[in-house]
Amino acid sequence: MPNGTGAAGAGEQKPVRRGRTANQRADAQRNRAKILAATPDALRKDPDASVADIAAEAGVGRMTLYGHFKTRAELIDATLADSLEQAEAVLADVPLDGDPGEAFEALIASSWMLLERIRAVLVVAQRELQSTRIREMHEKAEARMRGLLERGQNAGVFRVDMPVDWLLAVTHLTMNAAAEEVTAGRLDGDDAARVIVDTLRSAFTANGHS
């Protein structure tokens, strides 16, 4: 009888422990999400924001943050990856069929809107993470842009006297330059997308360059 009672008691406690573990896991996931959401805001206010600053922005303790990210660099890496994953969900819905030139402009405009949102994180990441890691995180977006440029070349819309790799490099450089100009106050953020599109259209389109 004692053994039976003990077994029943243990059986009754298991759901409680299981429920507690599930709640702890849910709390941990919520805290991680809060930290990742708060990091861009903290870096926008101060690119040199400390782990303590970011934890305060997220409304969690510093040790809670360290429980998820062992170093500031690890936090920056995770934040950029999370931001790009969210951006990817938006860019995946940009229609790329139809006229390649129009699709390119739509993709650039959407990309700039998203870049503006994560610009502070990207600037810090470029300073603190390896360039190969950042390039790796951009693979899906780069593949999408590459495919569109190749289709545009095949359709005679984009210049064929320059390799696609160069067109991609110029696109990235132009968007990064626009971000720097906006940060420096020399370019209006609301006008940046138009400036980028006009610059790349004049450089890439086949008209006048045959």
Automatic annotation (TrEMBL):
Species, as recorded: Dermacoccus abyssi
Residue ranges: DNA binding: 50-69
Record keywords: DNA-binding, Transcription, Transcription regulation
Domain HTH tetR-type: 29-87
Location of the region described as Disordered in the Swiss-Prot/TrEMBL record: 1-40
Name of the protein in question: TetR/AcrR family transcriptional regulator
Keyword Disulfide bond: no
Transcription as UniProt keyword: yes
Superkingdom field: Bacteria
InterPro entries assigned to the protein according to its UniProt record, in alphabetical order: Homeodomain-like_sf, HTH-type_TetR-like_transc_reg, HTH_TetR, NicS_C, Tet_transcr_reg_TetR-rel_C_sf
A GO MF label: DNA-binding transcription factor activity
PROSITE patterns named among the record's database cross-references: HTH_TETR_2 (PS50977)
